[in-house]
Structures are given as C-alpha cells and as structure tokens.
C-alpha cells in the first residue's frame, strides 16, 4: 500500500538540509529563505530542527496539529517542532531512554517560545488525571514566574531571557509527568543597576508598579511613577503589546498555582521594592581632618524606608556604606569609603540581593514541582540557553557564554558522530572515519586547570599586590603566546605587532564559529564579583524572614576568611555538571534563527541569517551528517515508495523486502558505491541519487496516472452505453404492454369512473366545509371566554388600586392633621415662654431704669463686645514669625481702624523681638545675604540655589589645617574667605586649582598643593567683577589698567561659592571710605584682558550631549565659549 505522506511529498525547497544539492552557504541560505517566504519556518538537518522566528502567529500550533504529529514517524510529515518533541517523548516512554532537548540561538530568535511549545506538546500528549493535570499545570506555570524575574526588554527582543535555564521533567513508567527540577545559569545581574539605551530592567519591576493595588504599593512604600527610581530606564518604560498590569496578575496567579504561600509572595515583593529603594540612595563627600573624603548618605528618606522594609537598623546599613572592615588572621582594619566606592558597594548589594532572590525563587519552585515518588524516573531535559555572541564590544559575559557554546558544540559533534557510528555498527556497515574540526583544543585553551584562560583569571584575582586587567592580559600574552587559536598584539600568532584591528587592551580567540575580539576591561572586577563583608553582615542582622536565608555568610558565628569562589569558577563548574548530565541523555537539537533585527514579519535579512548560520555551526552540522551517508530508510517503506520503477517489483513483490530493494536498484542501474545494504535499512551516500529516484518516481506516477485515467474513462463509457441499451429495451417492452391494456379498459369504464370520481370530490368538499365551520365556532367561543376573563381581571386590579389609594389618602390626612396640631402646640409654648421671660426681665431691671438708662446699657454692651473681641484676639494670636501674614478676621465694622492699628503694632513688636535674638555674627550673615539678594536676585540663575546655603567664609579651615600653615603665616590680616577655585587657562579653557583668600585689603591666589602664593592683588586695584546670568560658577576679576597687579592681565575663575565670593568682595570694597564702590557686571558676554590681548567670554546653553557639567572650550584666539547645561 502506498505511503500517504512523506517528508519528500509536496516539498517547498528541501525539507532536510542533508539532502541539499549542491551544498554551499549560499544554497543553504536560499533554501531557508524560500521556505520562510512560504511560511515553512522549520527545516531539518538530519534529526536537528532549524526554527526561523516568523514574528507573527501561524496556524500550525493548533490542537489538530498536535493530533496530526502524535505517534508519527519523524520523517513522515513536513518538518515541525512537534515532530522532534514527539520523537523524544516516544523514545522516553517506549524505549526507556532519558532525553534532552537543547535549544540555542541569539536573543529574539524564539528560544523561549520553542521551549514552551515543547512543554505544551508533551503536556498535551501525556496521560490525564487530577494529579497528573496538577503536575502539568505547575510545570507550565513556573514559566511566567521565571520570565517575570529573569526576562527583560532588549533592543533585539521584547521578552529576552537574561539567564540560561535547564529543566529536567520526570516521568513515571506510563509516561505521565511526576515533577521537575530547574537549574539556572548566569543571570545578567548587571542589568539591575544599569541598562543600555532602548532597553528595560527586569519585567517584575514594571509589573509591580503598574499592576499592584494601591494598598500593596502603600505597604511597599512605592509609587507608580517610574521616573522616581534611578534603576529604571525611562526611554523604554512602556512596551507596545506588553500589558505589565495584566502580566503582574498572571504572575501572582502562577505563584499561587506553583505553591507559594501568601507571606512568601509578600516577602519577595518587599525585596523587589528594596532593590528599587536601594537605587535611590545617593552619597556626598565629607572632608575629614586627615584630608581624605568620606562618603555620607545625602537624603536618608529612601534609606529609612528600605531599612523599614527589610527590618534593618538604619545606622548599621549607613555605616556599611561609609566603612569597610578587612580581616586578616587575627587583625581587623577599618577603612573609609569614598563616594565612588560607596556607589560601587550600593550597586554590588543591589545585584547580589536580586540574583540571590532569583536563585531562591528557582529553589522554591523546585521544592514545589519535584517528584514525590521515590522510584526511578524517566527524565526529559529542556535546555534554553544563550547562543554564540559576537558583538562590537565583547566582554566577560560574552566570553563565558561563548565558552558554554563551545562545550555544547563539542558534545553535539561527539554525540552526533557516536549516533552515526552506533547506527552503522547496528546495521552491519563498515564505519568510515569522518573528518571534522574538533574544538577540544579551544575548550582546553579556556578551561585548562593549569594554563587555561579561566584559571589564569582566577589566579590573577587571588594573588596579592596590584591586580588590573592589563596585568591579566600580560599574563595571557606570556602563557598563551604560542597557542594557534589565541591572538593578541604581543602573541606570535598575530599577523604583525602594528595590527590596527587588534587593540592593545584586547585579545582574540578563534572559536568554532569564527574569530571573536574580547576587550579585557572589567574582566577582573566581573570575575571577582565582590560584596563587602560589612554589607553581608548588615543584611544578616535584618529581621526579614527571607534576608537571613539569602546572606548566610553574614553570620558572625560562621565568619569565613576564605575568599568566595569567583564567577568564572562557578560558571565553569556549572557547565561541567551540565555537560555530564547531557552526556547521560539522548540529545535532540533545536537551532533558533532570527530573520531580521526589526522584529517584523515577512522580512529575511540575508547578512544577519548568514552570521547566525556561521556561529551556530549549521554548515558544520550538515557536513558531519553527510560525511557518511546522506539518507537512510527501512526496506519496507523504500520498496513501497519506489516499487513502480521496476517491472519485477510492480505491482506486488512476493519475497523479502531487502531482496526487492536490491532488484529495484539493480534494475535502475544505481552505482554500487552509492548504496550500502544494512540489516534493516538501505543507505544512500549522495543526495543526487535520492533526487534521481524521486524524479523517476514523479515521472512514473504521471504515466501511471495517465494510464489509470485512460482505463477508467473507457470502462466508464462502456458501462454507461450498456446500461442505456438495456434500459431502452426494458422501457419499450413495458410501454407496449401498458398501452394495450389502457386501450381495452378505457372504452368500458371511462363513464363509470367519471361519475364515481365526481361523487367523491363533492363529498370531500362538504366535509372540508363542515370542518372549517366547526373550527371557526370553537375558536370564537375560546376567544370570548378569554376576553371575559381578561376584563374581569382588569376590573379587579382597578378596584384594588382605588381602595388602596383611598386608604393611603386617609392615612396621609390623619398624619398631616396630627403634625399641624403638634406644630401649633409648640408655637404656643414658645410664645408663652417668650412672654414669660420678657416679663421676668422687665420686673428684674425695672428698678434700674432712670433717665440715662439707655446710655448705660449702650456703654455696657460696647464694653462687653470689646472684652469679647480682645479675648478672641488673644486666643487666635498668630505666630511670632515676622513672615507670618495671618491675622484674625474683624468681627464688627466699627472696630476696623483699631483692628488695623493693632495688627501694625503687633507686627512691629514681634519684629523687634525677632531682631533682639540676633548675635553680631548672625546679623552680619543676614546683612551679607541681603546684599547678595540686592546684587543677584532675578539677575543670575545660580542665586536661588545659594539662598539656603549659609555663607561659611573659611571653607578650608586655614587656621586649623596644618597643610595650609605656611600659607596662613604669609597672610598678615584676618582671612574673610578661603576657598578652592579653578583658574581658567585661555589657551585650552581648562581649569587649574587655586586657593582663593580674601582679606580686608587684598585677595590672594595660591597653589593648592604647595601653598605657594601665585598672586596678591590689593582691593583698590580691583575695578569690577563680571559674571553671566546663567547657573555657572565663572567670574572675571578685572584690574585697574596701569596698576602693578594688572601686568599679567585679569583673572578668569570658577567656583562653587560664586555668590558668596562676589558678595564679600562687594561688601569689603563698600565699607572703606577711600575706595570706590565695586562694579558688578552681569552679562552672558564680556571681555577679559589676558596680558596684551582681550578675549571675549561667551556663555551658551548646552545640549544633552554635554552632560550635566559646565565646560569651557577655546574657539579661537579671541573667544572662549562656556557651555552651561540646561536646568529643568
């Protein structure tokens, strides 16, 4: 019987790349493009599935498709991921072979979706039952949880997995799932603190802020505004087609299904909120007496809220951000952290907190989904891990990812060749050695315990002394110089030492997928991945239920002075465990390819796909597969498919299938070197032979179809003719007999029949009329009875309504009458009571009435009103602050004048009280502030920010600091102001640090490091000061022409305390009677005299590319341009 379907039937392009002829990279890509254009996204390389991401929904993942591929041979239908999943599941269930499915590809290629499709297919085809369905639901619902905490939006993919995942699904002997175990690899925790432009942080942060209820956010001390959190990028905060609020509800539901308790979910959300709060903690420098800076927290509100969330004492965590304790044997040394080190410690804590939380989530999920039975399980592993990465800037992350892919490629080649060899031995065919590139030498270059790159990196991280990325590169150049797959500027394998494609700080490795250039910057820090012990101990002291589990090394009772293992060592160990696990299972491969960078359907970018084909090693896979025999097939299907090509085997072969195939191939004159006959299969060496057989079969099928059509049409025509002929004879005989009988009967009975028929028709008509009349009468009777019933019902309803209305009216009138009577009685009582009260009052006061009684009553009333007014004023007296404009409202119009006068007197009195509290120093400070306001208010943008800052004067503590003792002794007068300023160089616009001292009679500029006096200018020689209107700190001190101080020209300086310096200069000049008032020029463009030349200083608004700092650049000999950032 002919096989109904096959991989070779109705094929678009070539479904199996092993059969591609001719085989080249261009033909490989053209075949992929052809199939992609026809919505064929899956292609085989032997048993390997190539999956091209369509970026749209296709109708090929329906329940009908699941049933179509269920229990079917791998090559029986067109290529599909369901075919591979079914093959793996049936091998596990029927042959008791543990399976693993390896899914690789770059970000956006569809690896996560492929793993979901595999798991959903296995869940659909395995057994049913309440317990089985619960296990399947938990396994499937673990994906949304891990995606929320481990996936993020990147420029390549809106749902990119930022970690590697391997899941072992365990089955019983019937093939029903019992549970699973998940392993995670290398979470990209650096994304927590910094994201590239156009990308987002992990999904859970945005889902929490968008989807959590107001009550939940209040408990977590969070708000919905993304811009409030420094760790969240704002340019891609919202993603089209991604509903963060709905996804948050999905994650909460998935966590409940997997088995998380409500308090565990709350603890996880508290840690996520703590990470957001941690990113908002900022630091400021604080000078110490030893001249070093110490970090201090700027705004402690976020620190306080974070400590409340985690149950940590605020002082403990604040100290951990300012000091670091180093333990060596029996000694402890505490050192201060500067601002940069404090920010490093903050980010390191955030990364460790999130990555440990993610590892705890994986462990918690494993506890819920692990198999409960103790019997032996069958296992199917699904590996979803990063593909080979070649970027413009490759660092430590790309290095270890590519190392993992080298190991996967090595195991792929080994297992593929082993499978080929086992099949040849099983079929009794001589094994021929297959030439292929063995990448074991590259793996050894990276992982060798003695002189491998990872070993040298660990050794460099652990050795004492100064360790930098450059010293690590020097060590690589020394040890790996002669390795054929390692290149650097100093290695012997580089083409020449001046190769500009190979920078000094880089090295290159020849991977199986091509050469990759790695930049060593950051290798040492990323491999160390240090978290200060003070922070670990601070975390361990938390009262939070989860924090102690995440930071066990912080336990003071278990202090371990041994350094923790490096990131490279841990990853190498994880990869080794993974490889040993995979080698015990039968592998199945899915290679995912991204067709374009636009994430759009129907676009196939050949250069991008070519790049992926190279680094996935697909051409290498095809060549290894084709090195032996390109095609193999059991004898029975082969004979069934091609038996029509030989007269001896068509239409039925009576002997064994192998003999029939041998006769068939001999009749077709296929060369013997193209074929090999195994015990159960025929092996075809070259795809051309297979295509020759297919072409002959297609021609033969056309000839057979033509022959069948010809025979069928002839048979159909003959049968139709004989049937018509027989029918004509029968019809003619019956007609002749019927005509004869009719003629005899007609003459005898035509009259009788007519009269009988007439009587029957009349009787039938009378019966029909009687029936109609009876029915009409009956229907009329029924209608009248119904009408009477409806009328009676209507009358009853109307009567009830009338009675009810009358009763309600009666009740209402009675109630109204009662209320009116009650009101009249109350009114009468009130009137009588008023008359009685008036009578009593008149009797009481009648004895007091005289001729002047009205005047006395008036005076008494006025006195009482005034008393009440003053008591009310005393009770509602405003505060003693002079700026408080509140005053009680005037109760009576005749008090208007007194009310205003009292307000004026009170204001003058409290101002006097406020002034009496000032000391002479405080009064001088306020006078300086007042003078600064008169000079700069509404004229310079920097002024508002200086209002809240007190004028300190001596910022350097020059009289106390021993560093400046020599300089202080050189100045005879009292120092009014001492600060560090930048002297601007006209040649390049850069600043040199100088100490600025101001006394009553002069100002001095000295070198900051040596304290040597560079210039001393008497104040009478200072004519004016020029500043801009913007928020910069630049100012020009213009000297009197012809004076001795003006020999070198004017001074162009910049300072953070510009407002205070100019105010003190103006005030010092104004207090002396023999000096002219100092002129302050505020303009965005002014001239400065440098020796003999005048230079224009111009201030402009800077763009976003200039950053947040003021920059000064020289445009030409006559122009200095100062770029000031735009203030929000």
UniProtKB/TrEMBL annotation:
One record GO biological process: endocytosis
Gene3D superfamilies tied to this protein: 1.10.10.820, 1.20.5.190, 1.20.58.530, 6.20.240.20, Kinesin motor domain, Myosin VI head, motor domain, U50 subdomain
Residue segments, region Actin-binding: 575-597
Any GO CC annotation of this UniProt entry: microvillus
Molecular function (Gene Ontology), one example: actin filament binding
Keyword terms, alphabetized: Actin-binding, ATP-binding, Calmodulin-binding, Motor protein, Myosin, Nucleotide-binding, Phosphoprotein, Repeat
PANTHER family: MYOSIN, UNCONVENTIONAL MYOSIN-IB ISOFORM X1
UniProt protein name: Myosin IB
Organism of this sequence: Myripristis murdjan
């Amino acid at each position: 019987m002919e096989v109904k379907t096959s991989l070779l039937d109705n094929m678009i392009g070539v479904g199996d790349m092993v059969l591609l002829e001719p085989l080249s990279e261009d033909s490989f890509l053209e075949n992929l493009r052809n199939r992609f254009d026809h919505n064929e996204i899956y292609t085989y390389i032997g048993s390997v599935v190539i999956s091209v991401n369509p970026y749209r929904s296709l109708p090929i993942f329906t329940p009908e498709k699941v049933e179509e591929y269920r229990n079917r041979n791998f090559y029986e239908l067109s290529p599909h991921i369901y075919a591979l999943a079914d093959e793996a599941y049936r091998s596990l269930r029927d042959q008791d072979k543990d399976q693993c499915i390896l899914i690789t590809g770059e970000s956006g290629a569809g690896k996560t979706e492929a793993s979901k499709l595999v798991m959903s297919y296995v869940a659909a085809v395995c057994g049913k039952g309440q317990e089985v369905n619960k296990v399947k639901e938990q396994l499937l619902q673990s994906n949304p949880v891990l995606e929320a905490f481990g996936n993020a939006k990147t420029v390549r993919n809106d749902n990119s997995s930022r970690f590697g995942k391997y899941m072992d699904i365990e089955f019983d002997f019937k093939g029903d799932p019992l549970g699973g175990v998940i392993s995670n690899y290398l979470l990209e925790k650096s994304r927590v603190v910094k994201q590239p432009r156009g990308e987002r942080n992990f999904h859970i942060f945005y889902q929490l802020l968008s989807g959590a209820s107001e009550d939940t956010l209040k408990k977590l001390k969070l708000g919905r505004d993304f811009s409030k959190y420094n760790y969240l990028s704002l340019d891609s905060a919202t993603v089209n087609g991604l509903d963060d609020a709905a996804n948050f509800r999905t994650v909460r539901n998935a966590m409940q299904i997997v088995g998380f308790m409500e308090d565990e979910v709350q603890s996880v959300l508290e840690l996520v909120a703590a990470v957001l709060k941690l990113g908002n903690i900022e630091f400021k420098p604080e000078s110490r007496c030893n001249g070093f800076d110490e970090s201090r927290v700027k705004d402690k509100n976020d620190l306080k809220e974070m400590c409340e969330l985690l149950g940590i004492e605020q002082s403990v965590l604040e100290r951990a951000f300012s000091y670091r304790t180093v333990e060596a044997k029996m000694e402890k040394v505490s050192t201060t952290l500067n601002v940069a080190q404090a920010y490093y410690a903050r980010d390191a804590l955030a990364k460790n907190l999130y990555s440990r939380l993610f590892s705890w989530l994986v462990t918690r999920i494993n506890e819920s989904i692990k198999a409960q039975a103790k019997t032996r399980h069958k296992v199917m592993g699904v590996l979803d891990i990063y593909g080979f990465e070649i970027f413009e800037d490759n660092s430590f992350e790309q290095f270890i990812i590519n190392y993992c892919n080298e190991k996967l490629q090595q195991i792929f080649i080994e297992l593929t060749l082993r499978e080929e060899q086992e099949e040849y031995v099983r079929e009794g065919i001589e094994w021929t050695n297959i030439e292929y590139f063995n990448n074991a030498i590259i793996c050894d270059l990276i992982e060798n315990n003695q002189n491998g790159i990872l070993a040298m990196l660990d050794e460099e991280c652990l050795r004492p002394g100064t360790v930098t990325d450059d010293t690590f590169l020097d060590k690589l150049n020394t040890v790996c110089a002669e390795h054929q797959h390692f290149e650097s500027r100093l290695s012997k394998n580089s083409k020449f030492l001046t190769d500009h494609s190979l920078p000094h700080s880089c090295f290159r490795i020849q991977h199986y997928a091509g050469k990759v250039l790695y930049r060593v910057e950051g290798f040492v820090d990323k491999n160390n991945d240090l978290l200060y012990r003070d922070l670990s101990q601070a975390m361990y002291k938390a009262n939070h239920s989860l924090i102690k589990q995440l930071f066990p090394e912080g336990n003071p009772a278990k202090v371990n002075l041994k350094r923790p293992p490096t990131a490279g060592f841990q990853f190498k160990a994880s990869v080794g465990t993974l490889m040993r696990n995979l080698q015990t299972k039968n592998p199945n491969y899915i290679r995912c390819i991204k067709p374009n960078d636009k994430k759009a359907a129907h676009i196939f970018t050949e250069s991008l796909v070519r790049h992926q084909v190279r680094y996935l090693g697909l051409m290498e896979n095809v060549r290894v597969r084709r090195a032996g025999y390109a095609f193999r097939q059991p004898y029975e299907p082969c004979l069934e498919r091609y038996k029509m090509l030989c007269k001896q085997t068509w239409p039925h072969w009576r002997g064994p299938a192998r003999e029939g195939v041998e006769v068939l191939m001999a009749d077709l004159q296929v060369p013997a070197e193209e074929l090999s006959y195994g015990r159960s299969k025929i092996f075809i060496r070259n795809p051309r032979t297979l295509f020759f057989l297919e072409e002959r079969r297609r021609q033969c099928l056309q000839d057979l179809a033509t022959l069948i059509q010809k025979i069928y049409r002839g048979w159909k025509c003959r049968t139709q003719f004989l049937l018509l002929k027989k029918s004509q004879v029968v019809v003619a005989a019956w007609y002749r007999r019927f005509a004869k009988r009719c003629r005899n009967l007609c003459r005898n009975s035509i009259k009788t029949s007519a009269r009988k028929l007439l009587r029957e028709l009349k009787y039938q008509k009378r019966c029909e009329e009687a029936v109609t009349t009876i029915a009409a009468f009956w229907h009329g009777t029924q209608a009248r009875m119904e009408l009477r019933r409806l009328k009676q019902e209507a009358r009853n309803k109307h009567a009830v309504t009338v009675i009810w209305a009358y009763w309600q009216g009666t009740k209402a009138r009675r109630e109204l009458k009662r209320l009116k009577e009650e009101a009249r009685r109350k009114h009468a009582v009130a009137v009588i009571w008023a008359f009685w009260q008036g009578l009593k009052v008149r009797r009481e006061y009648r004895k007091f009435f005289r001729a002047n009684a009205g005047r006395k009553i008036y005076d008494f009333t006025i006195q009482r009103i005034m008393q009440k007014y003053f008591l009310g004023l005393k009770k509602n007296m405003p505060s003693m602050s002079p700026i408080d404009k509140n005053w009680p409202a005037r109760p009576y119009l005749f008090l208007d004048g007194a009310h205003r006068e009292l307000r004026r007197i009170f204001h003058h009195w409290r101002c006097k009280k406020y002034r009496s509290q000032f000391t002479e120093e405080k009064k001088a400070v306020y006078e300086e502030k007042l003078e600064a306001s008169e000079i700069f208010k509404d004229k310079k943008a920097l002024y508002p920010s200086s209002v809240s800052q007190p004028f300190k004067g001596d910022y350097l503590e020059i009289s106390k600091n021993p560093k400046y003792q020599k300089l202080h002794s050189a100045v005879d007068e009292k120092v009014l102001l001492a600060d560090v300023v930048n002297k601007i160089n006209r040649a390049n616009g850069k600043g040199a640090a100088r100490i600025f001292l101001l006394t009553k009679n002069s100002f001095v500029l000295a070198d900051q490091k040596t304290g040597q006096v560079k210039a001393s200018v008497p104040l009478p020689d200072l004519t004016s000061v020029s500043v801009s209107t913007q928020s910069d700190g630049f100012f020009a001190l213009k000297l009197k022409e012809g004076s001795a101080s003006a020999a070198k020209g004017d001074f162009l300086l910049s300072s953070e305390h510009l407002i205070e310096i100019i105010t003190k200069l103006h005030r010092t000049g104004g207090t002396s009677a023999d000096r002219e008032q100092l002129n302050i020029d505020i303009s965005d463009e002014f001239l400065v005299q440098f020796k003999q030349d005048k230079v224009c200083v111009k201030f402009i608004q800077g763009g976003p590319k200039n950053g947040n700092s003021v920059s000064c650049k020289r445009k030409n000999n006559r122009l200095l341009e100062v770029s000031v950032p735009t203030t929000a």
